[in-house]
Amino acid sequence: MTTAHGPLIGVSAPRRKNLELLAGKATYVADIGLEGQAYARVVRSSSAHARLLGVDCSDALRVPGVLDVITAADIDDIRIPIRLPFAESPEANRALQAPLARDVVRYVGEPVAVVVATDPYVAEDAAELVLVDLEEMDPVVDTATAGEPGRPRLHSSLGSNTVNQLAFRYGDIDAAFAEADIVVRRRLRVHRLAAAPMETRGLVADYDRNSGVLTLWGGAKVKHFTRSLLARVLGLEPDKVRVVEVEVGGGFGTRGEPYPEDVLIAWLARRLERPVQWIEDRWEHMVATNHAREQEHDIELAATAEGQMLGFRVRGWCDHGAYIRTQGLLPVVLPMLHMPGPYQWQAFSMDLDAVLTNRTPVGTYRGPGMTEATFVRERMVDILAAELHMDPADLRRRNLIPAESMPFVFNPGPGSSGVMPIAYQSGDFVESFDEMLAAADYHELRAGRQRARSRDGKAGVGMAVYIEFAAVGPFEEVDIICDGRGVTVRAGVGSVGQGVETALAQIAAELLGAELEDVSVEFHDTAEIPQGFGAFASRSTVLVGNAIAAAVNEIRIKSAELLGCGPDGIELHRGNATGPDGRTVPLAELGGVRGRFDKDGLTASFGGAVCSASVDPADGRVRLDRFLVAHDVGRAVNPRLLRGQLAGAASQGIGGALFEELAYDDNGQPLSVTLADYMMPTAAELTPVDLAVIEHGSPSNPLGIKGGGEAGMVGSLGAVVNAVADAIGDGADLLSSSVSPARVWRALNHQSSLDGAGRPAMET
Length: 764
Description:
The protein is an alpha+beta fold and 764 residues long. It has three domains: 18-26 and 473-598, Aldehyde oxidase/xanthine dehydrogenase, molybdopterin binding domain (Aldehyde Oxidoreductase, domain 4, 2-Layer Sandwich); 36-137 and 201-279, Aldehyde Oxidoreductase, domain 3; 295-413 and 420-471 and 602-750, Aldehyde Oxidoreductase, domain 4, CATH 3.30.365. The chain has 18 helices and 28 strands. Strands 3-5-1-12-9-10-11 form a seven-stranded mixed β-sheet, sandwiched between helices. The protein has a five-stranded mixed β-sheet with strand order 7-15-14-13-8, with helices on both faces. β23 (576-578) and β24 form a beta hairpin. The radius of gyration is 27 Å and the shape is globular.
């Protein structure tokens, strides 16, 4: 089906909100000002681990303009639950966070009290007068040893700081290692990172006493879960809670999950019966909003002398910070799911622990789990290639799962615990890999590397390939309303900057034979959209797009009944359904039509990144000369939007590898609390990102779409570190995902085999 102007799926239509955003006409949460609005300031812990002996609010309450100061004593002892059932465990549910600390504080930045005033500056000044009496306790700050016996326990209800242990056994791992000619072993560290969007978090809540309706502005990503959570913890019926999505200055997975502040601001609005606004400052963001990535892995990889990769063993520790937040155990589940990658292993053994430390809680950040696992695996593949004196591309290519083996499944065997099969439904990994190499001019990059080295330059080429599991279910529904003015699509997902409203409008317009400008997409208000699961895991276009297709099929069926023909004989065009005999029925006569798309399991996509880098021996600075991302999207609905997502994600990954790190001292004090400390790259430090969009349609949905919003991140850490290690050469062992100038300089000058925390690496 096409419109009067041709097909729309696959067209780079302009993003709908560009003019509104660029002209400054968009509404962000800080733009909301309601009559009688009050302002909140959160008082936060200055200690990583301490007994909370008392909170003295008396001086703050005497400040003119202060309306209230609350502590944990004022609210019920509630906990913020895990959103996804498969990401729970009994231990994890005993480490959930309360909105305000009770008895013990467990990280710097944990909310202890909230001051509310008629003016935001009064609230901030009064918050300085709240006295928090803390008795220091020993903190736990080392990820790999956090769960060991004898370490201080963060939660007395737990036997240790380990909240979950996953095990995956596939094949005969002992036989695979016995067959090996070579085994390489390392300890690899993935460093702590933050999404650090341009706009920090914020909320406005208002309670209408007459209707009993609580309205919250600022919640995005998972609006309907936020609604149900607030209803549950505040004792309201779900239809008495309304969550309204506004524009956001960057989502990246970290924004939109319910945090302590969501509960606190909503609770205060109901208590005071007036609107309350809270806007996070940058320091708060760096210590209170979810962190991500920090993990350590002991890994050994077995192979033959000819380069057949036989198997691997990995023992890993995934840091969840001080509490388990709404993403639950995803930071440990997702690395295990992605660790095997696109390779045809004979066997592997994985043991990953979710551990707690006295640091800011960890959640999902663009490409969660898959980015960490890809770095660990792909760094080891390059280390193996160096030991075998093989081209890293040749080693990878000969071990990829061939197309004739699809669908391919790694089924967990005896000794596995808490894991699901790792299944790849379709794809041609070898062909996609070759497309990536061709797009990157890989052999020319290698030749350029040799020319630079002949002039004593430090130049290298690195790559990483990966699998992205995305498009998680269980379902999405849409309502399509056609009237004389056009088409309205109502969906339960959210927009966090990815342009989903444009892509969904393209799908609806093409399938309905409508003009693109006649289609509007609504998703902002839970009062209008009965249910939805939100925007995460690159799922919005896949699930809602196919729900739109299901609704259009229902429109065909209804039209066929009225016209006395079969659905296949219906042509949809400009608001009318036409049968084979030429009779028509206006779609407006059908009323609203609902479509639903149910999806089991995950959709697997192949992708990779290739980059070339040069290193300045004087100061360890790295310059990326070329960076390319290749990803199989199944079918590109809007190539321009897709390319923007891939390039943006890759840029975040490049910055994470070269500059950014959330560092802590031995007392659990954060050292990266401003953008001067957490060094995000500017345009001057980033190289343009080249893109290769691959389209091998997915059989898991009628439209053939796969995820793409997070993919540019996934291979970035591995590709950059591999390129830098190749540039340094001479046996330097880079074992951290951070290749900051300081780490590179140490590697250049000392050639030390140290992991990211300065510990000796495992022996080879």
